[in-house]
Amino acid sequence: MTKGKSHEKASARENNWHKIFNTLVELSQKLQKDKKFLENRIKSLHGVICKMKVEYEVESTKSDLFLASSEKEAAIYKHRYDNADSQLVDLRQSFDYLSQKCEEPKNIPDDASNKAEGSRNKSLQNEVRKLKAEIEKCKSDKNTEILALLAEKKFIWNQFENMESKLTYDIKKKDDKVKRANEKVQLVLNRADELQASNEKLRTDLAKVESESARKNEEIIGLLKQIENLNAKVGPTETPSLRSCRGGRSSANEGGVIKVKKETNSSQTFGKMVHTKPSAHKSTGGKAPRKQLTTKGSSSNSSSSKRKAVEVITIPDSPKLFNSTFKVPKLKPSAT
């Protein structure tokens, strides 16, 4: 009975340890899956960040190229404007020179010379008129060209400012996205570190549990071996035996003595019962003897694994009043 209970307790304890072990294994596997998921998430975020960096570099390169082309066009237009100004100055100087040259002389020597000078002056005046017309035409052309260049410059400058503001806004937006992505990556990395630490802790706990389980299993095996050794030393268990008393007159004259032998150890308790018949005490007039208790065995020791004791219990004889040999006792006469 005790052996079965101890075996059931050992099996129940082993089942509990197996359940704990399986739970820890499942938790460790779940943490491994979470770790792999987080690693894949971090890799994807790193890819997104790299892509955003490349796009940012491409946009910045485009903006630099557009700015350089705009500066180049502005320099070309400025050079054209400077050339137009220099040409205008040259035309003004030539016009002044021709106007001075075409002035009428103060002293006129004679009529022939006057006529020659008059015709010459007319030709010069015609040439001056032509030059003035060309100058005005060139001036108007240059003014229209200058106005067109200024309008184009203004348009290009507005386009450049709009593009610059747009690119600045996009860059700020991308910077914010990169910052948020870096924060998320940092949080994910911190979470991964925490999960790694908890995983390591669970591994250490699992190793402790495994060592504890192995130690408990060794203890259980040792206890089972001790139980088997004790059972081998004690031998097969004996069932209590009780001898029936004889019927008839002898049962009335004789009592019974039951001997109970108890042997205890750390795992089981065995008992032996033997029935004996003591002889009737005729000298006492058939009176029943008193109950006797006799104990034999070694001294009681709490640390010992086996104890043996023999108890003898004497059962009083059956009353001898109503049988064939019973006689009424004679009473002595009372003294007067």
From TrEMBL:
Keywords: Acetylation, Coiled coil. InterPro entries: Histone_H3/CENP-A. Residues 103-120 have a biased composition (Basic and acidic residues). Residues 103-123, 234-314 are annotated as: Disordered. Residues 171-233 form a coiled coil. This is Uncharacterized protein. The lineage of its organism: Eukaryota, Viridiplantae, Streptophyta, Embryophyta, Tracheophyta.
